[in-house]
Amino acid sequence: MNGGVNMPKYNIVAATGCATGIAHTYMAQEALEQAAAEKGLTIKVETHGQTGVENQLTAADIAAADAVVVAADIDVDADRFAGKKLVLVPVARGIHEPSKLIERALSSDTPIYKATQATKKESKANNLQQANGSAVTKIYTSLMNGVSHMLPLVVAGGVLIAVSFFWGIYSADPKSSQYNQFAYMLNTIGSTTMNLMVPVFCAYIAEAISKRSGLIVGFATGMIAFNNGTGFLGAIVGGYLAGYTIIFLQKILKPLPDKEFRGLKAIFLYPVLGVFISGLIMWFISTPMKTINVGMMDFLKGMQNSDPLILGIIVGCMAASDFGGPINKAAYLTGTALLAQGNYYFMAGVSAACIAPPLATGFAVLMNPKAYSKDERSAGYVNFLLGSTHITEGAIPFAAKNPLLNIPAFMVGASIAAVLSYMSKIQVPAPHGGFIVLPLVNHPFLWVIYIVIGAAVSAVLLAIIAGRQAKKHGGVVAGGGMGIITGEVEENRSESTLQSAKEDQNQEFDNDLSEILKPENIFFNVSVKNQQEALRYLAEKAVKSGLSSSTESVFQKYVKREEEGSTGMENGIAIPHAQDAAIKSSSMMILKLKNPVSWNTFDGKPVDLIISFLIPVQDNGAHLRYLSSTAKLLMHQDFVAKLRSSKHSDEIVELFKKFSV
User: What is the DSSP annotation of 436-487?
Assistant: First the structure.
């Protein structure tokens, strides 16, 4: 509050970004927003995608926030967060463990981020830990920053070159009988664009390290690397060389006062001295760098012919290990580098290994639909489209659900697709596009068949794993793997959970749950053998208590809801609910079980405390608010502890009344 004007204040501010700026960026944003909403916190997430920076954080947003989370593989200008508690991690962790990141950011043990060495209040241990973490993260994020800016050029140039081959493989050669002037023009434009790969890659690595001055020196160093034939290895070395050359110059020229020499430094000293020093070093190391680059490429070319099985397994495992992450990108960059040299075989295996995993998820949900939640089935169907266009990231939620089993399953299928492509000498002259570029592939139908075979093998393994997991949790579908509390709450998150989190924090819950909870609907020491019996018990008690007119109708709605996604929470608690015409009014029941039963929960623990909602067909969305409030209540350990220790019905009703207002 300032001058009578309400200013937005966020508990957490965050920034996300991935190398491609397509899927990971927004998946991390969604995961962080959900995690914050579940904790009753407000958050603003800035995204760094291919279309630019969206939802940009202002200085006021940052100043008012309690802590910062940066989940990014690229440079997002972390220096602006100096003076705040900051957690800086790769984008994958933002997707897989958003709740932990938020908790860590808010922890009193998290050190204050320092852009300079001006502040020295932290202990030496904290400073050392932060310095080591920052150094490793800086190297990684600067590399991914280069990849992010280079990839669109590679795709644009590669596809144009590939399209020129429609008129013949030698259509761009004026001496050939296949020569076509338009094909020559396309090939020239595409080749020129592809040639920018090395200088742009180099420049944006340097830019992430030392901002604009590094960018300028990086372009120059990258051109030297390109002209001397060092390839993308030269771009990587040159990028770090240019970036840290500027850092070196900034330190030695620091005695010159900024007020008088800022312009001279930026326009003259940094670019001239930087290009001279970095360019000179790159000039002398170009010969050994070129030898290493040529040797590596020749080795990979040789493996295509002599050991396609081993090469395919390596490429398949790399592509399916992190689904668009740095290991996947290493294989992809090697393929694009070979494309620039006229080798179209290597990319065939890389593309096949990238396309197979998302397709596998689609086949898996078709093979065993009962083993997946409604949201997972929808995601699997969408992955048919994503996979067909070479977007691997759609497989991430499925891998994250059970990584120790699902990732190897993806690797098997991706490796099969890559091995078959190499053994049949498939050629793919475009670096991206998936099945869109099939007209450019030398054996298109064979290539598609190989990819489908690999995807099908992974799908069988995934379906078996998911089926066993479902049986393990009481024979009801194992939903909730996507981090969803309840289907209805997730579908209406903007109307319930998220909106609740943005309201006044002093009034945490705006729904008095005691209004729909009566003492006679709370049952202690209930004996049931499994989840099905627990749901049946609830349905029977609903009829006996006059809350419903049909046991079977309510029971079937309970079961159907579990099939859409498990209502298991954590700490042994589940919140099943049923909406049916047989239910007279919104009601709430609580069961305390004598012995815990198997249930699919966030933490894998069995359930011994059940909070159930009965919902009439027409309730104007009231049940969504009740579910949202309950989900937030269960985040409070003191509430959960008192609920578990309560021995009387009236005590529990009063507990809900106290915490709900």
Answer: GGGGGSSSHHHHHHHHHHHHHHHHHHHHHHHHHHHHHTTTS----TTS-S-H
The type of residue at 661 is: V
Tokens of 157: 């140039």
Q: Is residue 400 a contact partner of residue 385, using CB atoms and an 8 Å limit?
A: no
Examine the pLDDT at 281 and tell me if it is beyond 90: yes
Q: Which two tokens stand for residue 34?
A: 């959900």
Burial status of residue 638 (CB atoms within 10 A of its CB: 0-12, 13-18, 19 or more): exposed
Express each pLDDT in 184-240 by its tens digit.
999 899 889 878 988 998 999 999 888 888 999 999 999 998 888 787 778 889 999
Give CA separation, 447 vs 356, 454, 646, in Å.
Answer: 11, 11, 64
Query: Where along the chain do its domains lie?
Result: 12-112, 307-472, 491-659
Are residues 512 and 629 in contact, defined by beta-carbon separation less than 8 angstroms? no
Place of tokens 């994250």: 400
Closest CA to 337 of 270, 380, 381, 290: 290
12-112 placed in CATH 3.40.50.2300: yes
Encoding tokens for residue 530? 């499994």
Dihedral sign computed on CA atoms, order 450, 452, 455, 460: negative
Distance CA 419, CA 657 (A): 63
pLDDT at 495 exceeding the cut of 70: no
Q: Which residue has the tokens 């079961």?
A: 559
Q: What is the DSSP letter of 592?
A: E
Fold match, 12-112 / 491-659: no
CA distance 211 to 247: 10
Task: Give the C-alpha separation, 373 to 365, whole Å.
Answer: 9
Which of the residues are catalytic?
Answer: 18
CA R_g for the chain = 29
16, 47 Cβ separation under 8 angstroms:
yes
Alpha-carbon span 171 to 182, nearest angstrom: 9
CA atoms within 13 A on the CB side of 507: 7
Read off the amino acid at residue 285.
I
Tens digits of per-residue pLDDT, 176-194? Answer: 888 899 989 998 998 898 7
Which residues are 610's β-sheet partners? 574, 591
N-to-C CA span, the chain: 24
Q: What is the C-alpha to C-alpha distance for residues 255 and 71, in angstroms, rounded to an integer?
A: 36
Structure confidence by residue, pLDDT tens digits, 73-98: 887 888 889 889 999 888 878 887 88
- Residue 428, φ and ψ in degrees, nearest 5: -125, 105
Element (H, E) at 254: none
> Which homologous superfamily does the CATH classification assign to the domain defined by 491-659?
Mannitol-specific EII; Chain A (3.40.930.10)
Token representation of residue 654: 């009063």
